[in-house]
């Protein structure tokens, strides 16, 4: 904002401590930006199109967690509504060790939220993911932002009070003027500590996902466990509304707009459905939106990974998420 940005879309801490995604146009609003808070009110990518429409010219910035960045890559790959931002969006990615469900976060109070923030900033793999973090976070594919213009990294270093500001996309340090906002270049040891922490957290979560495959709920051939999970579903579609990648793939099966639509072959709908699930960024906002307690994430995670395996999509490379 101080150096020619017109506006930034970011997580902003409210006076009561709750985080909301807001547009910052005045540098005086910057101190309230909190990209580390262990709470994700929504997948911020859902607001990006409106952000672009409201700011049709000038350079813009957005702060993203790794799952939100994966979502952005999928939409960019498919060319869905991101044209208005072409060439003028600066993406700032932030390491993420997990976030808490809305109820847990809101009820924690100021002291509880500060404790949770410290726990997650200093989190390192070994004891398993903190149990209270969202199920999506316990299964999260990769805790570091991949493909951002600038990355704020803390995994493996925050316990020593060190944040790393990492230029992305091959940008030279001089253009980002990092010398003005940092204490100087990171040491090789600090950089390798972060790399190690990222790979350990990712490996730990890969184990969590692998264990799901043996969970009787999902591995039984008769599907009774899975169907019992889904039996609470009222088909309200709140989960679909919360998904920035959903583009009506289930509307035929759900009968939405049926009278206006030419009926599409079931096979065509199944292909769209499998592409949507394979593109899933793992943000878990679908499950967060469900007020009926349907545990969507284990099911979506298993299905998404199986489809990607079948398609031969490298599971840890968000830039190569699924064919369109
Ligand atoms: S899904 Fe991953 S990136 Fe997203 S909030 Fe959870 S841990 Fe962070
Ligand atoms: S939000 Fe929950 S109840 Fe509503 S359609 Fe989704 S899973 Fe079903
Ligand atoms: S299906 Fe759920 S986890 Fe996947 S991108 Fe959509 S909201 Fe996120």
Structural description of this entry:
The chain is α/β, with parallel strands linked by helices and 324 residues long. Helices cover 39% and strands 11% of the residues. The chain contains 14 helices and 6 strands. Strands 2-1-3-4-5-6 form a 6-stranded mixed β-sheet. Helix 2 links the parallel strand 3 and strand 4. The radius of gyration is 20 Å and the shape is globular. The C terminus is likely disordered. One iron/sulfur cluster (SF4) binds next to helix 13.
The fraction of residues in strands falls at: 5-15%
Total beta-strand segments:
6
Instruction: Give the overall form.
Output: globular
Mean pLDDT: 83
What class, by secondary structure content? alpha/beta
The end-to-end distance, rounded to whole angstroms, is 35 Å
The whole-angstrom Rg is 20 Å
**Main β-sheet, spatial strand arrangement:** 2-1-3-4-5-6
Helix-strand pattern: EEHEHEHHHEEHHHHHHHHH
How is the main sheet built? 6 strands, mixed
Contiguous low-pLDDT stretches (5 residues minimum) are 316-324
Number of helices: 14
Set out the fold topology:
Blueprint: E1 5-13, E2 19-24, H1 48-54, E3 59-64, H2 66-78, E4 89-94, H3 102-107, H4 109-121, H5 135-138, E5 150-153, E6 164-167, H6 173-176, H7 188-212, H8 216-219, H9 224-230, H10 238-241, H11 251-254, H12 266-278, H13 285-289, H14 296-311
Parallel strand pairs: 1-3, 3-4, 4-5
Antiparallel strand pairs: 1-2, 5-6
Helix pairs in contact: 12-14
Bound molecules: iron/sulfur cluster (3 copies).
One iron/sulfur cluster binds at residues 242-243, 245, 280-286, 300.
């Amino acid at each position: 904002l101080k150096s020619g940005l017109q506006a930034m879309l970011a997580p902003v801490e409210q006076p009561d401590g709750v985080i909301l995604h807001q547009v910052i146009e005045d540098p005086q609003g910057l101190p309230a930006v909190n990209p580390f808070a262990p709470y994700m009110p929504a997948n911020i990518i859902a607001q990006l199109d409106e952000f672009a429409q409201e700011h049709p010219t000038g350079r813009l910035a957005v702060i993203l967690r790794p799952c939100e960045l994966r979502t952005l890559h999928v939409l960019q790959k498919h060319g869905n509504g991101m044209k208005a931002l072409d060439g003028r969006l600066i993406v700032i990615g932030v390491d993420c060790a997990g976030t808490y469900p809305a109820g847990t976060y809101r009820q924690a109070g100021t002291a509880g939220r500060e404790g949770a923030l410290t726990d997650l900033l200093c989190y390192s793999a070994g004891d398993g993911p903190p149990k209270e973090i969202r199920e999506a976070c316990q299964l999260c594919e990769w805790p570091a932002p991949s493909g951002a213009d600038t990355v704020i990294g803390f995994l493996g270093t925050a316990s020593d009070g060190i944040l790393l500001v990492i230029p992305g996309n091959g940008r030279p340090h001089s253009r980002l003027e990092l010398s003005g906002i940092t204490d100087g270049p990171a040491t090789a040891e600090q950089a390798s500590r972060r790399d190690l922490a990222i790979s350990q957290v990712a490996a730990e979560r890969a184990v969590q996902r692998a264990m799901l495959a043996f969970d009787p709920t999902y591995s039984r051939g008769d599907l009774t466990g899975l169907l019992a999970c889904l039996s609470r579903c009222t088909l309200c579609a709140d989960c679909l509304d919360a998904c920035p990648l959903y583009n009506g793939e289930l509307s035929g099966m759900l009968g939405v707009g049926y009278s206006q639509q030419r009926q599409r072959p079931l096979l065509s709908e199944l292909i769209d459905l499998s592409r949507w699930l394979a593109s899933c960024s793992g943000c878990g906002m679908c499950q967060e939106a469900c007020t009926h307690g349907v545990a969507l994430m284990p099911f979506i995670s298993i299905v998404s990974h199986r489809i990607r395996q079948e398609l031969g999509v490298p599971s840890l490379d968000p830039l190569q998420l699924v064919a369109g």
